[in-house]
Design brief:
This protein is mostly helical and about 190 residues long. The protein has one domain. It contains eight helices and no strands. The relative contact order is 0.15.
């Protein structure tokens, strides 16, 4: 599975997901080769945008301590990875057929890729552009979450997969809001 499989994985529960299931990458390898490098992007982009043209994005952002905020944001991302894998497993086990911890972490590693990549929009000092790209990343991440849960749980019912996806995405959004509010209040 490569990055070029991710667009197919958003629209199909077969393409890419079956390859991942067959390859069975370890959670550690997914963490080291995908989660860790890609989760560095958002804090790095926040730091760059905040220190170079923060006020163009939001008034008062240029004066924030981005050298403190960016590492905190990174640590929150890593904590979210750990927590979301466990949360996905819990929700899936409660609602439908079981999923093993490994597969829950595969979904947790793959689903946020569009969100991590959408942080590259911060290279453009235009708040509307950044918002559109971030929302597009959120939609793509939701599609990956849905397809991943449907594929790796071997569900027969798309409505159940959608229900689990809604629960997990709602919790993820609440988690990010809880992370962002204190960090951005600096």
């Amino acid at each position: 599975m490569g990055f070029m499989s991710i667009p197919q994985m958003m629209i199909s529960s077969e393409a890419g997901w079956r390859d991942l299931e067959h390859q069975h990458p370890t959670v550690l390898s997914l963490f080291l080769w995908m989660v860790l490098p890609l989760s560095i992007l958002p804090p790095a982009m926040l730091y760059y945008a905040g220190t170079h043209y923060g006020d163009a994005l939001m008034v008062g952002w240029s004066g924030k301590p981005w050298s403190v905020i960016a590492p905190l944001f990174f640590l929150c991302e890593l904590a979210a990875f750990v927590g979301m894998g466990l949360f996905i497993r819990s929700v899936v086990d409660h609602d439908t057929s079981p999923i093993d911890t490994h597969d829950a972490y595969v979904v947790t590693a793959i689903a946020p890729v569009p969100m991590w990549l959408s942080s590259l929009a911060l290279l453009v000092p235009n708040p509307a552009f950044v918002a559109v790209v971030a929302l597009t990343g959120l939609v793509a991440a939701s599609a990956l979450m849905y397809r991943g849960i449907y594929a790796l749980c071997h569900m027969a019912d798309e409505v159940r997969a959608a229900s689990v996806t809604h629960t997990v995405m709602a919790a993820g959004l609440l988690c990010w809001a809880a992370f962002l509010v204190p960090i951005l209040m600096f």
